[in-house]
Each structure stands twice: as structure tokens, then as C-alpha cells.
Amino acid sequence: MGAPSIVIIPGASTLPKLYQPVVDAVTKHGIPIQALRLPSIGFKPGTPPTISDDAAFIAQHITSLADAGKDVILVTHSYGGAPGTRCVQGLSKYHRQNQGLDGGVVRIAYMASLIPELGQPASSVQASLPPESLVPTAVDGNGWIYYSNLTRSAQLSFTDFPLEEGIFWAKKLVKHSAASFATPLTYSGYKDVPVSYLLCTGDLTIPAWIQQKQIDMMERETGSTVAVTRLDSDHVAPLSHPEAVVDWMLRLAKVN
């Protein structure tokens, strides 16, 4: 079977190149890894994509890997936790084995991710935060989110960088479909496979207490323990603490 393939599901407005240093480092250890560009990321004409569109896109990639006999570890970041949870339906290794098929998802590894409860949208996870604690956004006339205050975005999401560098990275964020945050979650994929969580204790975008609340919810729903690793990091650990994230991913790959 060989090493499992790691598929990174990016955060909102985040292009795959943000994860490239981590991808390059993990690849050097002989582990296949890729970061996807979700349909909801980056403005395009037409109806803005939903979480279902993102989940279907991810599922296509998983299916291709699984049909090639590969085990798959999903690593989700931020918004990616919602479609990453949704897309597992019918694609766990256990489910595929029961269908006489090889490969499949063997683990979901959440990294400072949004995991709404079943029937709730991704936006519900941060609903209890006061407005001043939310990254400032607005929605354009086509239904796409953009960042209305880059300085504040840097202060909340790129906290471990000097402010000017944080603003540099905030400028790299592209528009994101507002509909993807408003679409309810229709499947709890964390019930199908073992779950890990990289809890970023310095995260101001998804504070540690919200991350822990989600972990508690998954443990309550599944009756299983989530394998939690704590990291003193802001919201963008792949950028601010790439060595620690790489080490975490390598340990995930050895578990399976």
C-alpha cells in the first residue's frame, strides 16, 4: 500500500501556494501530498459555489486516489473543515472495503478548523464571537466575500508575524463565496474515520475555546477520543510554524 496520501483542504480565501513550504517538506519524506484549490476560492462568474460544490470537488480527488489503491488522510484548515467533513460520505476505507474497493479515507486531521454541527453552516461556529473579534469582511454585489480591513485581518489571523508582514500575507487572500459559509452541513464525516486535531492555542480567528468545543462535540457524537496536539500558534500555523505542522503531518502518516 505504501505511505498514505495527504490531501490539504485550504482555509477560506487561501490559495494552495500558502501551504507549499509544508507540501515541499513532507514530499521530501516520501509522502504524497497536495493542497487543493476549492471552487469557493477566487471569484468566478456565475452562481457562487456552496459547501456542496467544494465537497464534491474534494470527493473527486479522493476517489481518484482511492481507485489507485491509496489510503487518504484529509488535513483541513479553517473553513476547509466544513467541506472536508462533508466530503467523506461513502469514501472511508471501511465503506469502500465493504463495496469490494481498495483505498479510501483513513483519517480526518483538522487544523484550527471550522466544524459545524450537523444541519448548521460553517458560519455558525463563530456566531458567538463579538463583532470586534471577527475578521472584517464584506460581500460584493456578486456574492463574494472580500477583506475590508487588511490591518485588522493581519492582527487577527497572522498574529505571529510583525504587522507589516501580516498585512503582506493578508493581501494574498482572494475572494471567497459567501454561499459556502451559509450552506448547512449535511454529513458528519468525523463519524466514519479516526480524527486528529491540531489545536492552535494562540489563534484569535478561531479561538482555542471554540476549537476545544468542537473537539468535545465530536467526542460526544462519536464516543471516540480525538487525538489532540496543541501548538502555540496563530491561525496560520502552516506559515508561522511550518516545521511543527510538518512534524504533525509526518506523525499522522505513520499512524495509518
UniProtKB/TrEMBL annotation:
Domain AB hydrolase-1: 6-247
Pfam families the UniProt entry points to: Abhydrolase_6 (PF12697)
InterPro entries, per the entry: AB_hydrolase_1 (IPR000073), AB_hydrolase_fold (IPR029058), Sec-Metab_Biosynth_Hydrolase (IPR052897)
Gene3D superfamilies reported for this sequence: alpha/beta hydrolase (3.40.50.1820)
PANTHER family according to UniProt: AB HYDROLASE-1 DOMAIN-CONTAINING PROTEIN-RELATED, ESTERASE_LIPASE_THIOESTERASE DOMAIN-CONTAINING PROTEIN
Protein name: AB hydrolase-1 domain-containing protein
Organism phylogeny: Eukaryota, Fungi, Dikarya, Ascomycota, Pezizomycotina
